[in-house]
Amino acid sequence: MKLLNRSPEAAHAAVRDRYDAYRDGALTGAETAAYDVHLRTCAACRHWVAQQNSLIAELRADMPPPHQLQPIGAVQIQQAMYKQIKRSIFMQNVKLSLRTMAAVAAVVVVAGVALWWQFGRGDQTASSPETAEIAATPLADQAVAEAGETVSLTFAAPGAERSRYELVAALFNRLNPDITVQVITLAPDSDPATQADTAVLQGAPANPSSFVDLTDRLQGSTEINPQDYFAGALQGCQVGDVAYGLPLSFTPSFIYFDETVLAEAGVTAPAVEWTWPDLVQTITALSTGDGTRYGFGNVSGLLRLLQPLVAANLDANGSLNTAAVEPYLQDVASLVAAGHVANVDVAELETMIADGRIGLWLDNPATLSARIAEIGEALGRLPAPTLGDLTATNLAQPACLTISRGSSQPEAAWRWLTYLTYNPPELPIGSIPANRLTTGSFADSTLLNDPVSSQAINRAWFSRQRRQVDALLPALQQHVVAGAPLADALAQVDSAGATVGAEATAPIIAAPPPATGPTVIRFYGDQFRLAEAVATFRQAYPDIVVNASFDARMGPGGTLTLEDVTEQFDCISWPGVGLPPTNLQDSVWDLSGLVSPEVLADYSPEALGIVEADGQLLGLPLEINPVVLRFNRNRFSDSGAPVPTADWALNDLLTTAAQLGQTADSPRYGFVSNTFGLFFGPEIVEMVLLEQGLSPWDLAAGTLHLTDPAVTAVVGQYVTWIQQNALYTSRPADDYEERASLVQNGMVALWATRSDDRPFSIGVPEPYDLLPLPRLNSQVLVPPWQTVLFISSRVEDPSACLTWLEFLTTRADVMTAVPARQSVANGRAWQNEVGPENAALLRESLARHLAASRPDGESDVFGEKYPLLIWLQKAAEAAAAGGDLNALLAEAQGFGQQYLVCLAGSANPAADAIPCASQVDPGFFDP
Amino acid sequence: MTDDHALAQLVRRCQQGDLEAFAALFRQFRQYVYDLACVILRDNVAAHDAVQDTFLRVMEKIDTFAGEAAFETWLTAVTVNTCRSHLRRQKVRRFLSLEALSAGQLHRGGAAPSTAQLVEERLYRQSVWQMVNSLPDRLRLPLILRYRYAMSCTDIGEVLGVKLGTVYQQLNEGRRQLEQLAAQQETALLLSLAPGESG
Fold first, then answer.
1. Interface test with B, best of A22, A23, A24 (most B CBs within 10 A)
2. B31 interaction partners in chain A (CB closer than 8 Å)
3. What is the enclosing helix (H) or strand (E) of A302?
4. Contact at 8 Å (CB) between A308 and A463?
5. Which residues of A touch B110 (CB under 8 A)?
6. A769 — phi, psi (to 5°)?
7. Which of A133, A277, A785, B37 has minimal Cβ neighbours within 10 Å of its Cβ?
8. Which has more confidence, A392 or B122?
9. What global pTM score does this model have?
10. What pLDDT shows up at residue A880?
């Protein structure tokens, strides 16, 4: 760089170009000297440099403080990384060294301990972090196989959770090269004791002696610290004195209620610290006594709540001390006799709960039926009440890890189980890890912080006499329902638990079945709460794994088209207006003949119309997103304008907006239109004209009527609305932030928006509410946006994708707009998501939007009509600013006519619209 | 940022798959990566995800770190690239949810920003860094790296994957636009004061 030899202009430019290099000391000696010389001689450059220096000084002085990552956030990140790493290992995608994986596992376990202690659980003598860390690393000093040999083990897991165990097994296998664990799924009626070396069992097995008694191992274990487990959890995997398993997790039950039912009955939900008498009182208050509404359902559920008391009063021979239990049973008998407790089968009970006829019931979050879950946010829950002195009264169902007595590899099996209990898989919703150090495996971490759940966990009741107690249940029921004397009823019960201690023949473990993996489908989508939907789907369809992602490579030109995505994914969720044009048939499966008639019948013809082309069904609509209006309640009360009723029309909108606009010191806007054809200004002009039987243009005939007196009159009215701030209009895709800011700052009374803004914060500090789209007597609007599900034509067998996509269409919780399937849009779950009144308004909006959309489904806001709309808008804006409307419309008419001539000579008018517009109006893109 | 020799050893141990080294690396750099991600993404929640993705990428790619550049520069490049892909996703989402009104305020679950957040935002809006944030990423990122993290132009070029000359141009252009914005703000301030002064 030869600064001195350059022209003055070039030397000035060089100072600017090299300013940063100079400050970095990156110039050569000669260059630095030349730079200095020029500065000494050039006042303009000295001034420029001073400006830069001052700006930089300001940047440094105003530096915002560093953002602090909180310790809990760091732990969450580590836990998420751990899960991701486990997944990556499983997928063989990430080349990680064995030692690195173990390090991360150890770090996460330690972090989990730290978190646990932070939450105040340090009162129990748990393992030190160092112990936990050891548990996560290979136990290489206890070889189970000769050098170079590998021991194979089978592990039976429920089908729905198989993949989760496979992840843990993959990591275990990498850490323990001498053992290979294969996860298998057994048929529902097969016996894990004879089919697998190890298994996870829900509830006590019928034949506990078929499994290795772990009592001695637990007592002398250096790998397991009993203090790491929740109090009593180890007993949950015992029958009598036999420890047939190691607890992995447990699911606490809850007493559930429908808050709306309590409100109807005028009953306040009891406090978490409630007692048996409180329960009896609540049941009585909730019941109508005539069978219309019961205080509790069912009798057996109520008796189960007494099981901890029964267990506490069993003697060594299994005999019940009836005196201690009888008063409680009398309470139940009185409640039943008074008609306060339902006594029906489970299916009937579910119906009654869904119909709001049951006050309280005992249930388990893991098995809560879908019908009951539909109660949604109104579903309340409580832990079981205390029973006299007994506080551990909350029934807990443990999942136990077992070793079959027939296994030839008990040492390897023990190592696997101890590893598993310190590194559990992701657990199903509602399940708590039995090992308190493994908080990271909570599927629902809110359980820890929710007072009801933490009480249920603290009061969890585990019992090694569970089977004996269960066996007494029919006798107790006979006593309280039929009035049979308790002693007689109990006498009929066989001595429970008799099988304990009986030596079973050592079973033979079957050879593992050939490994077949699940079908993995790649799904492109970003639905609200998608991860939950994927997890639930996996439980229902264990043979299909959905890998969801919203990360696709853009195609050439820096845009992402549906065609690009079908190249990269198997099934796709794609939002848009109408079907994407061109060649879609080549990219996606024709689903006609594949989708069941029942599913098709669940769609309205309008919704299916979106995806039908040439007799083909190219996708499944997921949700449809109509225009709705929202309004700021305070602006209505300020102006005294009445809030329109839902049955309003275009004229009502415009009259209301005129009442709400305000031009004084603080401008207020009556109505703000929105981007991308959501009801924007010139469209309103067109709609008003069409309602009068007029039109500003006829594209088919190639004629324009902007200067017709009737059209000019309506545009004049539009100009007045703009001047009076009745309407704040702008062009599509223009001023988006500005309009958002007006709405957020309370300067707008009514604004057009899409129905799917629900999950996002609108950020309006004042109360705002929903109105449906007004009824429109014209078909001007762009069709509603919708999300459609497609299957890539590259997929050989679409059935797995179709199963997933059909499942997705039923999930009200993933929808942010109106569900396309009518059963979902009319269902209680979606109503709970948006509120019943809003659901009706949103459905009405959709019906009106579809009726007001162009029948051919084409978007013309960005098509041939776009330039005409813009010229009309520009003319109106200029007139509102004081211009001569007639002259402005004449100019717009002139541009428009030339434009239509240009377009008439085009083979592809849609593509040539903008080139033609900028050809006839060089200032087309100017503001 | 740290003692060079100790860091080089830590990185080498990571490359060898050392048990503790990766955890130590995370501990050492998590605050830096988090701050950078917050600044680039302007969203603390998204920054959490970005920290996670960044360290996962570090694990994946640490073998490719040849030690020619400083580790901090390499880590910054990984972080910036991770954040850029988050930004791209944000843009796609923003395009698809135009009615979410303000991209800066997308809060899933409907939680409104707290008063403290609003006050902080309001204060921040006055500052020159708020103006930096209003610039396009092409200009914003070089300014952030240069003035918040005091990086040399050569390092910025490496991190952003652009030529040195481009860095100079972008910094110049960024500063020019900042000055322009500051002048506009000054004018707006004067206009808003005018009635009071005359009255």
1. A24
2. 66, 68-69
3. helix A299-304
4. yes
5. 758-761
6. -145, 180
7. A277
8. A392
9. 0.45
10. 92
